[in-house]
């Protein structure tokens, strides 16, 4: 094969790869949710009201119905088992920037586009990002607003795998919206607001011990 032919062949492969990445990105909804590949995911519910006291919620779903590119969801109440956490808009806005920035960066590294941070509406989330967002939301739902930045810094110091583990353990024991302030939810708040975490070092022994001991509190 001539140099010119090889050059054309390489350019064609590069173009095809670019088109493939673009095609994958176009299939994603919200933050990395791919309805054709996985039916499990989360939805961030942002109210139309701009009031700081309006409610923002996160729900987990095992099945999604997508109709002509639009997500169709059942009507949920705060007591529905699918609802994992409810925050005030003011709390959400305190953590949203940090979460959205990290999620966007990771999605782009994976070849997926990320939407700009919306003010209202239902936003489907990749299941792993949904778990990580719940961990951060649980940590600050009952925290003093002044220590929310500390919780965010500590959350950023955790590896994604640690966040997934925290989600799994917390959701199994106290994962519904109304189960705030007890068991793993309470221990998680203390772990991320009272124990400095250095990025790359993971959970310090004291925080891990508090979380493991929280099993004794889950039935209180």
Automatic annotation (TrEMBL):
Residue stretches of biased makeup (Low complexity): 8-20
Region annotation Disordered: where it falls in the sequence: 1-30
InterPro entries: DUF3780
Superkingdom of the source species: Bacteria
Pfam families registered for this protein in UniProt: DUF3780
Listed name of the protein: DUF3780 domain-containing protein
Species this protein is from: Vulgatibacter incomptus
């Amino acid at each position: 094969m001539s140099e010119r032919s090889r050059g054309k062949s390489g350019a064609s492969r590069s173009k095809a790869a670019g088109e493939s990445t673009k095609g994958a990105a176009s299939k994603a909804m919200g933050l990395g949710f791919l309805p054709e590949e996985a039916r499990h995911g989360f939805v961030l519910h942002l109210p139309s009201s701009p009031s700081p006291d309006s409610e923002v919620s996160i729900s987990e779903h095992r099945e999604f119905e997508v109709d002509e590119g639009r997500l169709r969801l059942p009507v949920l109440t705060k007591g529905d088992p699918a609802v994992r956490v409810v925050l005030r808009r003011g709390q959400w806005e305190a953590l949203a920037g940090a979460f959205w920035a990290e999620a966007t960066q990771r999605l782009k590294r994976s070849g997926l586009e990320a939407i700009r941070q919306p003010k209202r509406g239902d936003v489907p989330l990749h299941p792993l990002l949904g778990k990580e967002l719940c961990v951060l939301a649980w940590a600050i739902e009952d925290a003093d607003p002044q220590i929310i930045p500390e919780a965010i810094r500590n959350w950023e110091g955790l590896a994604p795998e640690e966040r997934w583990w925290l989600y799994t353990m917390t959701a199994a024991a106290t994962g519904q919206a109304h189960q705030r302030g007890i068991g793993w939810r309470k221990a998680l708040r203390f772990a991320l607001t009272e124990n400095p975490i250095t990025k790359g070092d993971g959970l310090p022994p004291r925080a891990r011990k508090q979380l493991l001991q929280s099993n004794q509190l889950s039935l209180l």
